[in-house]
Fold this sequence. Notes:
The structure is a homodimer. The N and C termini of chain A lie far apart (about 45 Å). In chain A, helix 7 runs antiparallel to helix 8 (about 180-185), helix 10 packs across helix 13 (about 295-305) and helix 11 packs antiparallel against helix 12. In chain A, strand 9 (about 315-320) and strand 10 (about 325-330) form a beta hairpin. In chain A, the strands form three sheets. A six-stranded parallel β-sheet of chain A has the order 1-8-5-4-2-3, sandwiched between helices. Chain A has two domains: about 5-160, Rossmann fold, CATH 3.40.50; about 165-345, Dehydroquinate synthase-like - alpha domain (Dehydroquinate synthase-like, alpha domain, Up-down Bundle), CATH 1.20.1090. Helices cover about 45% and strands about 15% of the residues of chain A. With about 350 residues, chain A is of the alpha/beta class. The interface between A and B is large, with 38 and 39 residues.
Amino acid sequence: MASKNVQITDDLSSVLDRFFFDRNYTQVAVLVDENTEQACLPLVKDLIPEHWLISIVSGESNKNLSTCESIWGALTEGSFDRHSLMINLGGGVIGDMGGFCAATFKRGIDFINIPTTLLSQVDASVGGKLGIDFQGFKNHIGVFKDPELVIIDPVFLKSLPNKELRSGFAEAIKHCLIADRKRWDEISQKNLDTQNWVDIIGHSVAVKEDIVAGDPFEKGQRKLLNFGHTIGHAIESTYLDRGEERLLHGEAIAIGMICESYLSKKKSGLQETELNEIVSYINRIFGLPQLDKEAFEEMVELISQDKKNQGKVINCTLLKTIGEGVVNIPISTGDVIDALFYYNQLSDK
Amino acid sequence: MASKNVQITDDLSSVLDRFFFDRNYTQVAVLVDENTEQACLPLVKDLIPEHWLISIVSGESNKNLSTCESIWGALTEGSFDRHSLMINLGGGVIGDMGGFCAATFKRGIDFINIPTTLLSQVDASVGGKLGIDFQGFKNHIGVFKDPELVIIDPVFLKSLPNKELRSGFAEAIKHCLIADRKRWDEISQKNLDTQNWVDIIGHSVAVKEDIVAGDPFEKGQRKLLNFGHTIGHAIESTYLDRGEERLLHGEAIAIGMICESYLSKKKSGLQETELNEIVSYINRIFGLPQLDKEAFEEMVELISQDKKNQGKVINCTLLKTIGEGVVNIPISTGDVIDALFYYNQLSDK
Lengths: 349, 349
């Protein structure tokens, strides 16, 4: 199902053995944060050659140039050459930033990603998008480059808090909404705790690989994957520095999917019954936390900076129907405000 | 002679007209430094669409992350999207750093390079190597990516100080030494002021394109182009913060070529008469400025960090004979010290 680059396995040891069998890296680094160092590194460290450990502080707010400088600095200190390898062991932040640092260190060293959260397993594991945040804009600086290998092992999900599992599930829901009505019908019958994660990961990776393969540099169809993200990213960024109120990526994307489903009804033919079906299931899994109206202006400002725009037009990915997305639907800043107000009134009902 | 990507021309206007004819960029930026803003921008600015001017302070010592942040910041402020273009108008620093910023902004926007120094015309114009310095190491952070177009117009050389012209000439000399005995015989008959620059640029671009085409990611033969650079880069870095004493890139490479020719006699079969011929011509053009012995240790340290190394072995590109280079000759730090002492005693004679 997955390409040679992505391996879904419950036998980490064999996959790593095979990988290192005919490769002669001069040095190996493992990038972790304080969480994956504790929960995930013990499952990996005896399966790989002698290595340097680079540990960074977890969290999207550290996905910036300053952390990159400390990663590049560690590689420099260890005299890493171009024939060395970086293993990114963690969630999306570790994969995106570690990949970016590897892809730019001495103009590029090899790296492999071992995503340890559901979110990074179903989403960040495919597509070669690497990057960091800059001046408050998500993934503003980065490159496209595929890892040598992505290893997805559901064993890491056991240590994952429920809130993180739910966050990853948002992307799995998205993959159904844009590409697979039948699978949507299946998952939307179940709560979070009865889902089959191996199936869901396999499905998500397959949907994403299929879309990415036809459009590696996001010129067209790949934008399907942005459903929920135009508005969702802006919500996530706006709430980034709000401490307790902070939203996980998938929690923000869940709200973004409701807003963009509302716009899909307005712009691209989604039926009202379908909109209600989506709202109802997202409510069941995520609830409908109220957004701060005072932040709407900042969200709109962020959306105007979105990488997917062309000039001043906001290009949005919407749904024609459940199971079929459509890219490049122009929306206005007024539409965005409408959608945010629509979302907020849902929980008033 | 040059590929479709590199155009050597005396008609900048037609080339730019043709380039913009069927492209619809939403925004255009021109990156300059204070020198090219004054001497080169007037020749270009009426030939391109409305644009943002981004001006940085010239010099290798500003080719760093902090300048990148100001370039990325300017693109962000101008709401540049992925369908925008950056024009890098200047020498190697502008091309390497502007290209790196373009290649990483929103995971990559188009860029074109208009090299304005002989050095950047004969060297940096081909090969897609982009990058910045980091913690004192040259081009330590970067990527490989080709510009949409490189335009080389000798008109820019008219405003170039003689010292800069000579610096660029070092790379042209290198291209003869590694690949073309006949051309070496021709240029080494002439002083700097009687060289035919259009011919020399054409030859250098052709030699470099030929080598790069077979090895875009510097896994093998491309290392031929590193002749003179293993030791030359270290000398250049060591002298970077020495004010008046500072060496231009080509001046450092000229010294590096003498040192590495000396090692070629020791390791790869270069004849003593050939070594003397090389020393004699480089002396005629560049003189033999004495190196500071106190800095030798720092140079060796820098060489041990060279991107071209594999583990602890220093891999050097040397000459078999004038006109034929050879890659991956292992040398020791002791060899480097020997070569530096050899160079210094030349001017004692």
